[in-house]
Amino acid sequence: MGRLPRLLLLAATVFAVACEDDFSPKSDFTPKLAVFAVLDPAQPHQTVRLMWSYDAEVGAVTMPLTETQVREADVRIVRGGETYVFHDTTLVAGDGATVRAWINHDLHPLPDRQYTLRVEVPGSQRVSSDITLPSRVYVRGDLVRPDTGVATIRVTHGVNAFTNRPAAFYFRMWVELEKWNQGDPFFVRGEIPLRHLAATDTWIYPTPDREEEAIWSVNMLRQIADGMVAPGDSILTRRVIINAYALERNFYSYYKIVRGFEDPRSVRLDRPDISFIDGGLGLFGGMVEDSVVYNYFRFIRD
Question: CA dist 147 to 56, 150, 153, Å?
Fold first, then answer.
């Protein structure tokens, strides 16, 4: 028998076996506890989200075959000799949907402190994770006139040596106006983009990055501020608010993996590409916020 007939016979045999025993890429499934918790001192309360990883049909991952809701859990965060117990709470999202989370109103995260998350679910292994929040960044903004003659605003931190260096920085800038127009005074605020791409009509804003500074155009600040003034407005005050977030290592690493391609829907919460939970899945991370407020005319000098 020649080579080609032998290959055809082999292919026919494999096909016949496949018809008798359907192939499935699914493997045995064991649920794991998935955690998502980011300590943020700027929030009125600290939140821990829990769910079970779930089995699903191939190609239909949004249709769980197994339980996803965690119905009972003991959630605690320890800082030094202090233990903060989180309570099962039902929250209402902006679209009216209900969200189950574990909440604590007494924990106020502090820079340069270590935190340990412990979660116990009846009948399941305890999961845990440790982080140390980074140091405060003491953000500042300065007017800079480079050789090009185009005035810019340089935003950076004011620390010579960090006790706990952030893994990344996230800088944002806002302009806030207090206006009056035949009624009670009110405030309006707008975030300042880094630049505008006219070809695609896209506004570019900062994102978390390892860079220790961000540069804004003074003309962009002026453009956004002027666009917030309507006919008949009397402007009472103008100010610039600069925010800086210091991200610890776990949070930044998770952000870069899960949000790196700016498509958060492509990654299931319970199937992260990276996990910082011992014995489980997901993230325990944190950040520290710092802000400074300047008079608008510190940067706008006609």
Answer: 59, 8, 14
Contacts of 108 (CB under 8 A, 6+ apart): 41
CA 279 to CA 124: how far, in whole Å? 10
Whether residue 128 contacts residue 119, with contact meaning beta carbons closer than 8 Å, is answered with: yes
Q: Residue 226: name the closest of 214, 215, 238 by CA.
A: 238
In angstroms, rounded to a whole number, what is the distance separating the alpha carbons of residues 252 and 209? 8
pLDDT, tens digit, for every residue of 160-192? 999 999 999 999 999 999 999 888 999 999 999
What is the pLDDT confidence band of residue 27, given thresholds at 50, 70 and 90? low
Residue 93: half-sphere exposure toward Cβ, Cα within 13 Å: 6
Write the CA distances from 291 to 128, 239, 246, 294, integer angstroms.
32, 13, 11, 10
- Written as six digits, the tokens of 74 are 């003991």
Is the distance from CB of 99 to CB of 150 less than 8 angstroms? no
3-class DSSP state of 111? coil
The DSSP letter of residue 278 is B
Q: What is the pLDDT of residues 190-200, one digit of tens each?
A: 999 999 999 99
Strand bridging mode 56-57 / 195-197: unpaired
What percent of the chain clears pLDDT 70, i.e. is strictly above it? Answer: 78
Q: Which residues pair with 56 in a beta bridge?
A: 64
Q: DSSP 3-state assignment of 147?
A: coil
Calpha distance 230→212 (Å, rounded):
36
State the Cα torsion 154-159-161-162 to the nearest 10°.
-110
pLDDT for residue 71 is more than 90:
no
